[in-house]
Amino acid sequence: MGNATLRLGRADDVPEGGAHGYDPSGDGQDIVFALRRHGVLHLWRDRCPHAGTPMAWRRHAYLNAAGDRIVCAAHGAQFEPDTGLCVSGPCLGERLQPVAFAIDGGEIVTATTNITKETSS
Hints:
By secondary structure, this protein is mainly β. It has 1 helix and 9 strands. The chain has one domain: 3-layer Sandwich (Rieske Iron-sulfur Protein), CATH 2.102.10. Helix content is 3%, strand content 31%. The strands form 3 sheets. Strands 1-9-8 form a 3-stranded antiparallel β-sheet. Strands 2-3-4 form a 3-stranded antiparallel β-sheet, with no helix packed on it. Strand 6 and strand 7 form a beta hairpin.
């Protein structure tokens, strides 16, 4: 597929203070998620750096109740939404993997090489 462009969805589908997961391959597992904080959109790979598990505890639910931290459902690790830095939990000091993206015609777009799933050997 090379470096093809992939349209994930409308940028305005990500509410202020909220998050939205994306499953571009349609296999039932989000592999990236976007969140909007203070008007800025961020796109992260949906994997905890501690054990590689998905982050959300249910679809599109990546944030704590206050909306000020990304939380790993598997371990309770907490991450800063703007930087992806783990500030509490087993991966303290590690970071979520950011995904490069652009907004084109109101849609979040990225290169397919930015979001391909890691495969196990």
